[in-house]
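Hi there, hope your week has been kind to you so far. Thanks so much in advance, here it is.
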Amino acid sequence: MTATEISLDDIRKLEDQVANGLPSAIGELCELIKIPSVSWSAFDPGNVKKSAEAVMKLVEGLGVFESVQISQAPKEGEDELGQPAVLATRKARDGRPTVLLYAHHDVQPPGKDDEWESPAFEPTLRGERLFGRGAADDKAGVMAHVASIRALSAVLGEELKLGIVLFIEGEEEFGSKSFKNFLKQHKAELASDVMIVADSDNWSTEVPAITVALRGNVTFRLTVRTLGHASHSGMFGGAVPDAMLAMTKLLSGLHDEEGSVAVAGLESTEGESPEFEESRLRQDAAILDGVRSIGRGSVPSRLWYQPSITVTGIDAPNVANASNTLIPEVSVRISVRVAPGQKAADAFKAIETHLKKAPPFGAQIEITEVDHGEPFLVDRNGWAFSEAKNAMLQGWGNAPVETGVGGSIPFISDLVEAFPNSQVLVTGVEDPDTRAHSPNESLHLGVFRKAIQTETNLLFSLNSRH
């Protein structure tokens, strides 16, 4: 399958269409941000449905798809349906390839209102950044696809022969619980030569990145019990082990003195990485003065190619309600990031063995609510990878950096398993200041424009392959 070189005249036409359509794309993005489409079970699913309907309307308005639908599949191992996704398809013509464009329209919970400088679901422009929950992750990914198809169609008209599948998921932020069943349910429609997942970040606001490695994840609830009921700390403290003491000793054994993971069987891998200064890590992660970073090796190695373990939540009496008692039971939520090359199930077995090997003071240990997703390494040898890098160079004016991502996008391994012959590209609209999942999430509008331009260029190039 060969491609025709994009002429300067074509590039100018594409750039004009992207520039002309940018105000509309930003306005439509703002309307999507206003919909609080949190997919977590404790939130109103009606808002996710409303968001899906809004996306469907935008997609129908493009006028290029033969089919546009909202679809739901059963959750894995359950009868309950997952959150609504939007699926649109058009068949390839004259031997052109088919490309699948993925993003998700659901968002993380907003968190505490007082930590936002402006309301989470009221899109607010400050300088070059648009603030709001989902402004970047991942409603900007949705709009990058919509705006790219719109620009491409305007330039090509009847010469648009590329097959396009648009898959906008509705529950990525809640574990993609129906994802595998959705793939089975729509396997024929989702089949494609290239898959573009717009859910990652860029090196900076001036330099793009293409993601080549993703860590996997294992999450679970760890409960420690030492007593049948709470007891007076003055009467029994010093002789009776409380659950908090046992828990803190247990958790302290997960890391060594430098903060590296100290669990036998959790593996690391090797990978090329660009220069990444410690000072940038401190700035990007907002490390406080006097606080040291943790782990060994280069910063990219620690972030992309080594495992990590984080306690993300704890159930225990809060300070305001603390009484002078020995706590009988404590639970924590643990998140393990799995290095590329190791199976998530093997990583879980290693940490389970570690935790249950010698519980402090003989405490009772229980592990429940286990969930995991596989790590992923992109195949950099395919023609689509080269096409994507060229499109980024054209769209940004700078060559892309090949990066890993410390976070996880577990569903990508599901895509690869279901469609082993498809080439997967991981791109995105985020940058180091986006603060995805955090208060004051934002989108840099310059990055948004360049992401749209890149994807438009890439789709134009794919349209010429036959």
Observations:
- The CA atoms of residues 326 and 465 lie 69 Å apart.
- The mean pLDDT is 94.
- The two ends are 5 Å apart (CA to CA).
